[in-house]
Amino acid sequence: AMLLLDERADVHVLLTNCLKNDLNSSTQFIVGTALCTLAAIASPEMAHDLAHEIERLIASSNTFLRKKAILCAFRMVRRVPELMDEYMPKCAAFLNDKNHGILVSTITLVTEMCEQSPVVLNYFKSSIPTLVRMLKTLIVSGYSPEHVVNGVSDPFLQVKILRLLRILGHGDPDQSEIMNDVLAQVATNTETNKNAGNAILYETVLTIMNVESENSLRVLAV
């Protein structure tokens, strides 16, 4: 269905019940496909109607489904921003999750919500120490060998964290101070002879220049 339709097609109204049935299936792959379809074609009305199902799946113990539900929620809040309130507490908890897919998808959703709402932005400022700790771990010991790219520890997760820190620290000297040390570590320890390292360094420089960082750190960025 998601290959043939978009949210403007009238027939999508008829799909709501079908998707609801699939979202309650006992087969995870059917549920996963339904989540992908919903993310691709959902109208604001469909997003409202199926919000409870997404919220339920975000709390699932099945990490495969939880990751897909979080990414589906990312598309939902773009269409219906008022749904953000339902996801904020769960996302704050998921930032402590050990599953790589859950972390990447959660940070993606949190970044989107923070860009849309000052209220959400203030809510997630309390998560800055968690993000800083996560980034330090990636620099010092790495996340997992399977996520190393050309000798660089998990560049995708590092970039996601840096982008979120940039949003959370903008215009806030107190919160920016918390991330000064780790930004300096990333800037000085990242290998620049690899594309993955350059991507991280680029995001680090943007973050340093967009938060209320120390003057010495800004000089380092330049």
From TrEMBL:
GO biological process: one example: vesicle-mediated transport
Keyword Glycoprotein attributed: no
GO cellular component terms, A-Z: endomembrane system; membrane coat
Keyword list, A-Z: Membrane, Protein transport, Transport
Gene3D superfamilies registered for this protein in UniProt: Leucine-rich Repeat Variant (1.25.10.10)
Designated name of the protein: AP-1 complex subunit gamma-1
Database matches in Pfam families: Adaptin_N
Predominant localisation class: membrane
UniProt keyword Protein transport, yes or no: yes
Start and end residues of each Clathrin/coatomer adaptor adaptin-like N-terminal domain: 1-222
InterPro entries in alphabetical order: Adaptor_Complx_Large_Subunit (IPR050840), ARM-like (IPR011989), ARM-type_fold (IPR016024), Clathrin/coatomer_adapt-like_N (IPR002553)
Location(s), subcellular: Endomembrane system
